[in-house]
């Protein structure tokens, strides 16, 4: 078994701080959205939630035994579908909005 | 922390900033494309620097996973029909949720192993290493939210794809009691998992219970509430990612996840407001109390006037201004291109044409805008409800295609109706209203629509696309 990083109290507090501030930033930047952009905003932010990919890469590559690696690799596939598909489909929609001017 | 770790952390900060710029960009039409590219760039940066992490020992599985995932994602994104966009978003969302479940699972599996080892080495210590509890709780939360997101999104997908078995909610007794019991079990498993950090099975059990919970939560939610559900599940997938970030103590996961969580909540609120329904009512699948004071017969008997393509074409001949109101029926009939053709014909007759977009028309936020954009209708022609409502009085003909509850005047007049107070499009104020609809069947709210029986309303019964084609043919004949 490889060494596992365990969270210290300080790291946990820093994490919670970052979490709360980021939620506020999220609320602040998205105040008024024209209805035309409801779908792209949704699918774009959906693609961002594919960020779990970073965690998936760490799980898949850490060599923590067969089961953990398998779970990690499956997570890499799922998260990549989410991220790649999400950004591409958003771009496709936005190009449609843009092409006639 | 060595130099490499510092560089990785700084790169994560860069990608977090790119994600913020992405969301900010996506809120304005002019910057939306750029915003989306920022998001993709942020993801790329985060993934590339993660590959340099010292804990990553093997690359075989990673390259395999990335290639397969990118292939599937790109294929789906390029091939999908625009009418199928709501279910596509639901599906991608579900995958994101499942990824969080798997990552948290892998990490908790390792954690339980480490704890067991520590106990084996020194059986006398009674407590697990510091931080274990925090990691466990974060991991359990990621598993819970992720699994609810996954199964909930799959049910939403099945409903939106109109798979037969899912068209009507499964009916079983004591829905709320069962949900309550499931929630209690979830709580119990949290307590169990935290008190025995060396075991992995509470996590597995929790995931299974959460999968069931996702199904029971989304199952009763009907078609018209779908925009709310999709926005909410989107928010959940972000929160699951943020929880995973706590397990891994990874800042970019926490930031990106909470940004998505916040933006999803805002969209959910916008959708709820547009339907004049509270989030709890949507989630627990109840329509607002109150019943229609009139039956179908009282509203419709002898008053509904049916019309034909030729008759509507004659109406258009003398019209100067036409407003088209698209609804979900337009998407079902795939009639967006036919609408564009009709618009072109009308404009060639020097008629001013505008589209009135209700915020919850369709099955996802902004659904109508996407469909009409696909048919190359300029978005300047699409007007929001508040903008277009005052102009109905100066409109000669309003053409309603496959919409019902969002044009039901009862929302204004009857305080006891289930949709009382819901903002609607005031189509009844225009000189003539033509409604293209298959039948007089009620919309999601399940109440009759007095608009259909109004003096200035004509019903054009039929499939949306076929009716539009008839109408275009009739117009071309008379030109």
Task: Write a structural description.
- The complex is a heterodimer of chains A (101) and B (479).
- Chain A has 101 residues and is an all-alpha fold.
- Helices cover 74% and strands 0% of the residues of chain A.
- The mean pLDDT of chain A is 87.
- Chain B has 479 residues and is an alpha/beta fold.
- Chain B has 18 helices and six strands.
- Chain B has a six-stranded parallel beta sheet with strand order 3-2-1-4-5-6.
- In chain B, helix 1 runs antiparallel to helix 2 and helix 5 (132-160) runs antiparallel to helix 8 (226-248).
- Chain B starts with a helix and ends with a helix.
- The chains are: A mainly alpha (101), B alpha/beta (479).
- The interface between A and B is large, with 90 and 120 residues.
Reconstruct the topology from this structure:
The complex is a heterodimer of chains A (101) and B (479).
Chain A lengths: L8 H21 L8 H11 L3 H10 L4 H33 L3
Chain B lengths: L2 H23 L6 H19 L9 H20 L5 H37 L10 H29 L14 H21 L5 H18 L7 H23 L2 H25 L3 H5 L12 H5 L8 H9 L3 E6 L1 H5 L3 H13 L3 E6 L9 H8 L7 E3 H4 L8 E5 L8 H4 L18 E6 L19 E5 L2 H15 L1
Parallel strand pairs in B: 1-2, 1-4, 2-3, 4-5, 5-6
Helix pairs in contact in B: 1-2, 1-9, 4-5, 4-8, 5-6, 5-7, 5-8, 6-7, 8-9, 12-18, 14-18
